[in-house]
Specification:
This protein is of the alpha+beta class and about 110 residues long. It has two helices and five strands. A five-stranded antiparallel β-sheet has the order 1-2-5-3-4, with no helix packed on it. It is globular.
C-alpha cells in the first residue's frame, strides 16, 4: 500500500507541475505554438520567421545582449539552442527572449 500511495502522490505532483506549466504558458503543442509567451511580465519570448534581412547573419549579430537575444532556432522541424556563430538560414523560425522595456527597440531593429 505504501508504494501505491507514493506512486499516487508522485502522479498528483506531476499533474500539478504540468498544470502550473500550462497555466504559465510554458507547455504547448508543437503544431499550435503561441506567438508570444509571457514569463513573469518581464521577459517575452517572440517567435519570428527569418526575413531576408536576417538570413546569413549570425545569432550574435541579431542579438542586443541584455535586451534581446536568440534563445532557439527551429530548422526543418528540429529546434536547437544556437551558438553565437550560428547563421540564420532561409525558412528558420527564430525565438528571441526580449525584455519588456526593449520591445520597441526590438521591433525597430528586427522588423
Amino acid at each position: 500500500l505504501h508504494g501505491h500511495q507514493e506512486a499516487a502522490e508522485f502522479d498528483d505532483l506531476a499533474a500539478h507541475v504540468h498544470m502550473r506549466l500550462v497555466k504559465w504558458g510554458l507547455l504547448f503543442h508543437s503544431a499550435h505554438p503561441p506567438k508570444t509567451i509571457i514569463l513573469m511580465n518581464i521577459i517575452k519570448i517572440i517567435k519570428i520567421k527569418a526575413s531576408l534581412s536576417l538570413i546569413g547573419k549570425t545569432v550574435d549579430e541579431i542579438s542586443l545582449h541584455g535586451e534581446f537575444e536568440v534563445v532557439a532556432i527551429e530548422r526543418h522541424d528540429i529546434t536547437m539552442m544556437p551558438l553565437k556563430d550560428t547563421k540564420i538560414k532561409d525558412n528558420d523560425t527564430i525565438y528571441f527572449s526580449v525584455l519588456e522595456e526593449s520591445l520597441l527597440k526590438f521591433k525597430e531593429i528586427l522588423y
